[in-house]
């Protein structure tokens, strides 16, 4: 069986697949469209991350004998899942494998942005002493963390946050307010608007679908609690980036950590230049050495199982 892997994967997981299958692994293939189409036309399994768009021409190029699309991550907005299902082509995400990485990113950036003191190295090293200016940072204990989306990542984030003394409220359109997941995590279920307006830290954990596109628009950002922190590790397109930048510059928001963007890689974005207390990262919240290993081996195992069953 021939497996084509178009983006980076743990080398040991690749080797495990090579022990049983013919594997073409090239993490740069995603940026070579002609080669991507040509290689996908001769595969029994296709393994991608978030940049390979498994739709349109690429999906048409995938042969009928292809047995599975493995997704090295959890979001599926880069894959035309209904079209795959119509072909009887399973799509396998690495559900839960990078949850700890994302949860730690949320809690870590929340602490950094609330305290506001960790970017003083250049000033202190230059002999300055901005102690007074940096003495008004905030503690994370006692603050309200609001979660929009309460799947596996949201639930793990809640457990880490409550361990630090945060109060956690959450909204999930797919869960009833009496769902046992809330009680098990020590979280209070709340309505969408309450979560958005009452949170000291607001963290997004929803997929990018029509109902969530533009969810954090200018009006909702304006309605957030003054001084609140916004963290988006979910998907670009959920937050109005220009409105967010304006809210940071005006002082309405106390900070933001944004890991995902409407266009990736993020083009030069003047609206973000000079924004205070802003952390921008290149879609890495779910990517750590440990998470990459878990994600890669999980997908390697699932792909191998499906190919073995197809023999």
Key features of this structure:
Rossmann fold; 36% helix; 2 domains; 5-stranded parallel beta sheet; 12 strands
Question: Secondary-structure blueprint of this entry?
Answer:
Elements: E1 2-5, H1 11-18, E2 22-25, H2 33-40, E3 45-48, H3 56-61, E4 68-71, H4 81-86, E5 91-93, H5 99-115, H6 121-125, E6 144-148, H7 152-163, E7 167-171, H8 180-185, E8 188-189, H9 192-198, E9 201-204, H10 218-223, E10 229-232, H11 241-250, E11 255-258, E12 278-280, H12 289-310
Parallel strand pairs: 1-2, 1-3, 3-4, 4-5, 6-7, 6-9, 7-8, 9-10, 10-11, 11-12
Helix pairs in contact: 1-12, 5-7
Care to give the gist of this entry?
By secondary structure, the protein is α/β, with parallel strands linked by helices. The protein has 2 domains: 2-97 and 289-310, NAD(P)-binding Rossmann-like Domain (Rossmann fold), CATH 3.40.50; 99-280, NAD(P)-binding Rossmann-like Domain (Rossmann fold, 3-Layer(aba) Sandwich), CATH 3.40.50.720. 36% of the residues lie in helices and 15% in strands.
